[in-house]
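Exercise: predict the structure of this protein bound to ribulose-5-phosphate.
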Amino acid sequence: MTSEKQIAAETATEYITDGMIVGLGTGSTAEFAVKKIGKLVRSGLSIRGIPTSEITRNIALEEGISLIDFSETMYIDLTIDGADEIDNNLNMIKGGGGALLKEKIVASASKELIIVVSSEKLVENLGNFPLAVEVISFGWEFTFNNLERLGGNPNLRLHHGKPFLTDNGNFIIDCKFNEIKDGIKLEQHLNMIPGVIENGLFLGLCSRMILAKGDKIIMKEKNKI
Ligand code: 5RP
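Solution:
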């Protein structure tokens, strides 16, 4: 049976048209989209991709997708990415895979950001999933202490007993805020802490959510003002 992740991801690729610059997300859901784009490219679709991680870069190259970077463009037509949590206002927590910094740059440069998720990712309130905060390794203990004082119940992310390193050579501190009532305020506080490079709150960036529930698709677009 096709998984919800695969159904959502492959549906999103229907929004890609010839000539587009496409942001390629990271994670198990986004991977389905990258693989589907690979198939479309092999059938004649012409696009250029910008990957959000080394893992995605390697998958895209294996799939034969042409890649570019920001030296060649200032904008991206469409990005397809996953999320760890998404609420009804299309605000999200991302960064479970540790790619939040590039993901946020790519999302911010995108005219359209389609978020593809399986049904359990839709939540009433953000915050149950630990919020990834990317920090510089120098003085991380000081940054950690500040995150603790902010009520983040921080945890240094480890990999085989050593600090997990992002593609950018930084550490990740996962914070459990439980219920994030005011995401904008929290993001401001986080960004003011010395050593914090980026956080996994993605507010106001998603333009369309494609959620698969069983074999059904639920689509939600950002309210247009
Ligand atoms: C990586 C991410 C991913 O999009 C998020 O963790 C979802 O992953 P998955 O699709 O594997 O559940 O933000 O940094």
